[in-house]
Amino acid sequence: MPPFAIGLVAIAAVLHAGWNVLLKTSGDPLLTAVRLQAIGTLILGPIALVAWLVSGSPALDGGGVAIALASGVLEALYFFLLASAYRRGDLSLVYPLARGTAPLLAVLVGVFVLGERLTSLAGLGVALVLVGILLVARPWRALGEAGREHRGAVGFALATGATIAAYSAVDRVGVRILVPWEYGAILAVFATTILGTVVLVGRRQGWLATPEPLVSAAGRGAGERLLRDGAAGVLSLTAYLLILFAYSVAPLAAVAPLRESAIVLAAAWGSFRLGEATGNREAGLRIAAAGLVVVGAILVALGQSA
Description:
The structure is a single chain. The protein has about 300 residues and is mainly alpha-helical. It has helices at about 5-25, 30-55, 60-90, 90-110, 120-135, 140, 150-175, 180-205, 220-245, 250-260, 260-275, 280-305. About 80% of the residues lie in helices and about 0% in strands. The radius of gyration is 19 Å and the shape is globular.
């Protein structure tokens, strides 16, 4: 894996953890997801249009546009599932589960669908990721009374991981047909339109509930909420574009696991800054388990590039 691609993925991981913190603490993650997507699209769209005009308005490959549409549907589903998970569970629970599940599935897609090879080192990495996920989720605890409040969060987080793996595989193909900025702009328009329409119609018709605001978010004014959503949108957009560029120069099974290094950051932030852990022991366990996921993901990446 080229050092340039590793640098792109590392920066993207930090930015990704940042906008997830903003999403989790927003009070209404689903509406915030719509706003951050819209803001990111409004920024990227005009830039991409100008770049397209300056480059002579080349014809867009129909297959690339169709792939962008497919990814847009998956992106909209991803935000819906992620927001649902954050309404039901902690950042330090949801983020490692969602991001840790994704590289496992992405590796399977890379190996069995895209024909990429998996070495014994990568196999060890997969095992570590699995152990880390089990320690984070602690399914034996979720079956008991103490874990009842997080049962829904675990399910939505795992489903989120599946969508991440799906759109990662789709994007890996899309950026080989269209240039990354072009593909990203088209994808963003599709994802924002689909997600915004579903949320708007769903809440008006009543089949999507409008949650009560969190105590920590209740006192925020419209200006502060817009500023936070704008920051989340910029972070999300930048992180995703960096990943798209990385996909254009490195294999899926190398990029997808390595980007999950943000898991430790999110687990630590949720455990200590958001007070999600009941004590230092539980906080340490969550961070250590998240660390196992990251080590496993890195081994998968190294094994894939060997």
